[in-house]
Amino acid sequence: MSEKTSPSDNVVTSVAPTPTADDFAKTYSEHKPRILLLYGSLRERSYSRLVIEESARLLEYYGCEAKVFDPRGLPQPDTEDDTEDDTHPKVKELRELMMWSEGQIWCSPERHGSMTGIIKSIIDWVPLSIGAVRPTQGKTLAVMQVSGGSQSFNAVNQMRVLGRWMRMLTIPNQSSVAKAFLEFEDDGRMKPSSYYNRIVDVVEELVKFTLLTRDNKDHLVNRYSERVESAEELSKRVNQKTI
Predict the structure, then answer these.
(1) CB neighbour burial string for 79-104, b if at least 16 within 10 angstroms, e if fewer
(2) Are the beta carbons of 94 and 69 closer than 8 angstroms?
């Protein structure tokens, strides 16, 4: 067997070990998977919220602990000074739930071919770093959307971009419920349909990916470029407040 070669003099080999199977966890967490659910509408009969509530029921059926964040009362980002980050009760609640979660489900209505400002505002309140901890890094994510008209995938595609930016592991499957106003009973429960079956698919897949990755999330998204960067430099870069 030939000796291991150096790819370039630019590589700091002391922080660039070869990944092996031995790097991964050999024991697994025994507590229930912790899943946070977010929705992007404040309407009294919010179909994105109804989808999230159906998803929460399924998560509990699959043995998870599910918590739904209610966005009512959450201020718009960038409307207050920096002290709002630490003192507003809804911001504190959201960030604590982000830290608590091991996986997440986001559901937004599609409005004007886009996710809503509400779901974007929720995500915008979550910094890339809280102290030395990244609150979403390596956590699993499933994305869903509801539409008033024909089926579309604009909102889920945009949320996938957000998930990648937040360093989340977004699962392959997704859900898009067309003409959502036809898919729910008066009591808010979803009717049997192929749309409902797809939601079951997505939730089941999220649980599987969460169980697979939650004990290795920090290792999976650990980056060489940041290992060669000092902690002080990294903190300054990811916590910029003047953009």
Answers:
(1) eeeeeebeebebbeebbebbeebbbb
(2) yes
Amino acid at 72: R
Q: How confident is the model at residue 12 (pLDDT cuts 50, 70, 90)?
A: confident
With a CB cutoff of 8 Å and minimum separation 6, the contacts of 4 are 18
Beta-carbon contacts of residue 67 (< 8 Å; ≥ 6 apart): 34, 35, 36, 37, 97, 100, 101
CA distance readout (Å), 128 to 24, 27, 199? 24, 28, 29
Tens of pLDDT, residues 24-79: 888 899 999 999 999 999 988 999 999 999 999 999 999 999 999 999 999 988 76
For the whole model, what pTM was predicted? 0.87
